[in-house]
Amino acid sequence: MTDQTFTHPSVLAGIAAGAGWADPTMNPADIDWTARRAAAAIPFPLVDGRPVNPYAPTGIRYGRNELGHWGEALAADAIVTASDSDGGRWLLLIERDDNHGWALPGGHVDPGEDSTAAAFRELAEETGLIADPTDPWVTTLPARYVPDPRASDEAWMVTVPVRIDLGHGWRVLPDVTGSDDARRAAWLPATDYTALALHLDIAYGGRVFPAHRELLADVLND
Predict the structure, then answer these.
(1) 3-state class of 217 per DSSP?
(2) Residues near 24 by Cβ (< 8 Å), separated by ≥ 6?
(3) Domains, the chain, ranges and CATH?
C-alpha cells in the first residue's frame, strides 16, 4: 500500500494568508528541529529530517492533514466541573465550530505562555467563564497525546489538561456562552463518561470530540 500524503486546503489557505498557526514551509526538513524537539512535551523522532508522530500511524503518512504546525503542537484544555445542591456533577463543554463535535474549552498554548494560564485564557474566550487560577482546587495534569482526527504522522496534538473544580452546592450553575471557536457552551451531567456521552446524544444529537474521549473517560471514571 502506498503511503498516503495529504494536507488540507485550509492549511494551504492559512499559509497563503500568513496565519501564525501554520508553518509556512511545505517541507518540514527545512525546519531546525533542535529547539522544537528540546521544547517538546513528548519526545518524538526524526526520519530524514521529518518529524514522526510518536503514536503513529494515523493513516496519513506525509503532510499535515488538517493541522498547520509540523510536529508537536501544544494545547491546553480546561476540565471544569461543578456539583449541584443534590450532589450531581456537571461538566462544561463547548460545541466546536468545525463540526468535530463537543470538546473541552481549550486551544493552542502561545509561544512563551504558561500552559495553565493558556487553559484559563481559552476558557474565558470560548465560554465567558472567568475562573480563579489560584483556587486550591485547580490541578494541572501531565501533558498527554490526544488522538486528534485532524492529525497526521507528521503533525499532531499534545495537550496539558487543567482540572478546575468550582465546588459543591450550586443551585444555578454559572452562565456560559459560546464564543470565539465555540458555537455554544453548555453544562452537561457527568456522573461518568457513559452518562455524559448519552446525554450529549439525547439532548443535542452531539458526540464528544474524538481527541477528548479517552481523556474524559479517564477523568470522569476515576
Answers:
(1) helix
(2) 15, 18
(3) 5-65 (no CATH), 71-220 (3.90.79.10)
Closest to 64 (Cα-Cα) out of 158, 4, 2, 151 = 151
Q: Which residue has the cell 476540565?
A: 79
Can you read off the three cell numbers belonging to residue 73? 503542537
Can you give 42-71 as a three-state secondary structure string? CCCCEECCEECCCCCCCCCCEEEECCCCCE
Task: Identify whether the C-beta of residue 220 lies closer than 8 Å to the C-beta of residue 128.
Answer: no
- Residue pair 19/28 in contact (Cβ under 8 Å)? The answer is no
- d(C-alpha 63, C-alpha 5), whole Å: 5
Report the candidate in 98, 95, 120 with the shortest Cα–Cα distance to residue 107: 120
Residue 108: count of CB within 10 angstroms of its CB: 18
Output phi, psi for 195, to 5 deg.
-65, -40
The rounded distance, in Å, linking the Cα atoms of 128 and 65 is 31
Q: Is 103 in a helix, a strand, or coil?
A: strand
Cis before 189? omega within 30: no
User: 4 in the Ramachandran plot: left (φ > 0), alpha (ψ -120 to 50) or beta?
Assistant: beta
Task: Encode pLDDT of 171-217 as tens digits.
Answer: 999 999 999 889 999 999 999 999 999 999 999 999 999 999 999 99
Half-sphere exposure of 126 (CA within 13 A, CB side): 29
56-100 per-position pLDDT tens digit:
999 999 999 999 999 999 999 999 999 998 889 999 999 999 989
